[in-house]
Amino acid sequence: MASIRHSIEYAAAVTGIELAQMLSPKMADRFGSALGTLTCAILISRRRIAHENLRRAFGDALTEEQRRAIVRNVFRNTARTLIEFARFGKLGLDGLNKIVEGPEMTQLHDALKRGKGAIFVSSHFGNWEMMGS
What we know:
This protein is mostly helical. Helices cover 73% and strands 0% of the residues. The protein has 6 helices and no strands. α3 crosses α4. The relative contact order is 0.11.
């Protein structure tokens, strides 16, 4: 029985990846958000765990509705990130460089050319895995 379920999950993943690569970036993002909403609705046990973890961590500081909104947004953002991963192959390095924003790296490159090290501090907004490309 597990092999049938795994085959279905694999087929769904491949289909999702192919669909994500066919969509425009804006539509792919919408697809990811919708996928996250659907996943949140389907994976009841995971949703409950996330909700309970927030209740334990924040107690009464968050209302029931705030916890529900956070959990829903976590599912959406996770699915959006997965769709971004699925599109990596389509984007290529040039495509990634067009959408990843950051400061000029001249000081870092200069330090490396001189054989010096550097400490690099950064925050991230969005899909931080793209920064490694």
